[in-house]
Design brief:
The strands form six sheets. The chain has a seven-stranded antiparallel beta sheet with strand order 14-17-18-22-21-20-19. A five-stranded antiparallel beta sheet has the order 5-6-7-9-8, with helices on one face. It contains 24 helices and 23 strands. By secondary structure, the protein is an alpha+beta fold. A hairpin with a 2-residue loop joins strand 11 and strand 12.
Length: 643
């Protein structure tokens, strides 16, 4: 693709040549326009599919500033073929069935999951879902599994968003895999998973880098019609959380049924990896992201706190426990031996403490750990050796660990000891004799600690060719023309306080002049259907979204919204749920209360028509809800279906 541009215009004139700007914008417009033109005859089994991939690949190359070394092709595969590939991939990532069995033992011993929870069976289902689409090791082939369904695509919220973004299911899957394959071909992503010694936390951080990169590129591709990219999203984490099932290819119901610690581990490479990638791009653009592959993040701590990766460099300490056979009076079998990392420590503390925030605070300042589960003559013995950035951090974790292990012992039996030595905190949990536990504590004083030596990322200066394709410069070229506002007249008729939607055929009337119609937009594209803000009370709003009426086995849009709110904002709880009639239509009203800095009340009202359902969201600060409730009610009661 770069060669094409070099043949059109010499690169040396890239930054100052007005003709180059115009032609670059024109070529980009042709690529985007071509995407729409090819959609009608898109067929994964024929030539149109190959043409479509060429267009999508070219757009992704422009957005990422890299070239495909091998032009990707698209192939269908059976579920059986997909299963073989996904198992091989999991083995390479250190997530084979033996590793899962060991992880289950450790998590269940620490009370992070129920003893009877079958982690291997759950991951078999996760693997089945994840195999919906994939790319091969060298990124030259993209596979879609047929028959199959895309996790998350049954969500009315996701379908509504994709409708606004003008993307089909197959196109999304292809774009997702191409966004993974492009960096994989150029930046040796496979080498990220060769961590040497067994270190699950480091492998998780590597997956977060690779997946965060791909998700950023995918989001840029999804937003390509809007004139903005990932960096322009006001709340990128929330946006990715909404699409997490489709981005991670794990169904939302499956995620909801997982123990919290396992769910956090599954979502981490995509959600926190995306946040980490954004931090890199904000600091140094795509060149800094590229450089991270040569000096990858070493811990979940660096992903959670990007400043500890490239600003205030904080490398983890590698811990090697001494042999414990003599202290335990006989041979032992190692059932689990790995690094939990800050994410794992959060998960353990959160399982037993009352506050998720308290768990996150106590796990911050993590410096390194080793968690080992041993089978001894007296039964299982868990050893947790941690080191912290400061004595204060160690004290904070010690206090939280005492509470957590105390609650664990009370609920599951056994005994626990937690002791702090300077910046190290050592915890033992098991059913052995106190004398044996004491001997183990003494033996652990011989633990070896060694900081990992790793250079910071080195983002090389861009050459003129790369600079031309740097996204900031490229988007700058496209903004030479005055920004175009969304065309609201396409669907709306305005008359005073009355709003009429021409496509969905309904009319609304604001109850007073206190409300202003203001659709959410990204660049030049309308993303939400209808939003009205109250002029006098900041943050008070009414939105309306129209969905196709769900069938007997489809997800109801209202249930989808409630599930999303409760999963992403855990403090929100349903306080009322009633059925009624509004504007002559069957209606259901669900009210939730929670806190986002201040207490918030949100009421969802779903009106059911013949072929569509209409969902209103009324949200405001809780102290204003009763004051604004009459206006909320009047706004919704004004809803009228037109013939």
């Amino acid at each position: 693709m770069r060669t094409l541009f070099r043949e059109i215009i010499p690169v040396s004139s890239a930054t100052g040549n007005r003709t180059l700007i115009i032609m670059a914008a024109a070529v980009f417009a042709m690529l985007i326009g071509g995407a729409g033109a090819a959609r009608a005859d898109f067929d994964c089994g024929g030539e149109p599919c190959a043409q479509r991939i060429q267009v999508m690949s070219a757009v992704l190359e422009l957005l990422r500033g890299l070239e495909f070394k091998a032009p990707p092709s698209l192939e269908k595969q059976s579920p059986e073929q997909a299963r073989e590939k996904i198992l091989a991939l999991r083995a390479r990532e250190g997530m084979d069935m033996d590793s899962l069995a060991a992880l289950q033992l450790a998590y269940s011993t620490l009370g992070m999951m129920d003893r009877d929870f079958d982690l291997k069976a759950t991951f078999a289902e996760v693997n089945r879902q994840h195999a919906r689409s994939m790319f091969d090791a060298d990124g030259s082939k993209v596979y879609i599994t047929e028959p199959g369904s895309t996790p998350g695509w049954d969500s009315p919220m996701v379908r509504k968003a994709m409708e606004a973004l003008d993307l089909s299911e197959v196109e999304f899957l292809v774009a997702r895999e191409l966004a993974h394959a492009l960096p994989a071909q150029n930046l040796d992503a496979a080498a990220l998973f060769d961590a040497g010694t067994k270190n699950g936390d480091r492998a998780l951080a590597a997956r977060a880098l690779a997946n965060g990169d791909a998700v950023m590129l995918l989001v840029d591709f999804l937003l390509r019609h809007t004139g903005v990219n990932s960096l322009a999203l006001k709340n990128p984490g929330m946006a990715i959380s909404q699409f997490a099932p489709s981005v991670s290819l794990v169904d939302r119901r499956t995620l909801a049924d997982l123990p919290a610690a396992v769910r956090a581990r599954l979502a981490f490479p995509f959600v926190q990896g995306y946040d980490f990638g954004l931090a890199l791009r904000q600091a140094g653009g795509w060149p800094l992201v590229n450089a991270a592959y040569q000096s990858p993040p070493l811990s979940s701590e660096q992903i959670l706190h990007p400043e500890k990766y490239f600003e205030k460099r904080d490398v983890p300490v590698e811990i090697v426990l001494p042999p414990l056979e003599d202290a335990l009076g006989g041979p032992v079998t190692v059932m689990y031996d790995d690094v939990f990392g800050e994410l794992g420590m959060r998960g353990f503390l959160a399982a037993w403490l009352d506050s998720q925030t308290g768990a996150e605070t106590a796990a911050a300042g993590w410096g390194g750990d080793r968690v080992t589960l041993l089978h001894t003559a007296d039964g299982p013995l868990l050893v947790m050796y941690t080191t912290w950035d400061s004595a204060e951090d160690a004290e904070e974790f010690e206090a939280a660990a005492n509470k957590a292990f105390g609650a664990l012992s009370a609920a599951r039996g056994g005994s626990a000891t937690v002791q702090r030595i300077a910046r190290d905190v050592i915890a033992l949990y098991g059913h052995g004799a106190p004398e044996a536990m004491s001997r183990v504590s003494s033996a652990l004083l011989r633990t070896a600690k060694q900081p990992v030596i790793a250079p910071p990322p080195d983002a090389h200066a861009l050459d003129p060719d790369s600079a031309f394709f740097d996204e900031q410069l490229f988007y700058g070229m496209l903004t030479q023309a005055p920004p175009r506002k969304p065309d609201l007249s396409r669907n709306w008729i305005f008359s005073g306080n009355t709003f009429e939607h021409k496509h969905y055929r309904y009319r609304l009337t604001a109850p007073s002049g206190n409300w202003v119609f203001q659709p959410f937009t990204l660049g030049n594209q309308v993303i939400t259907e209808f939003t009205a803000f109250h002029k006098g009370f900041v943050g008070s709003e009414i939105t309306l979204e129209t969905f196709h009426k769900p069938g007997p086995h489809e997800i109801d849009p209202l249930e989808d919204m409630i599930l999303f709110v409760r999963q992403q904002m855990g403090s929100f709880e349903v306080v009322s749920d009633r059925r009624t009639t509004i504007a002559g239509l069957p209606a259901r009203e669900v009210t939730l209360k929670g806190a986002l800095i201040i207490p918030i009340t949100a009421r969802y009202t779903e009106l059911t028509g013949k072929d569509r359902v209409f969902v209103f969201t009324c949200a405001t600060a809780s102290y204003l809800y009763e004051k604004l409730k009459p206006e909320f009610d009047a706004f919704i009661a004004s809803f009228e279906l037109l013939k």
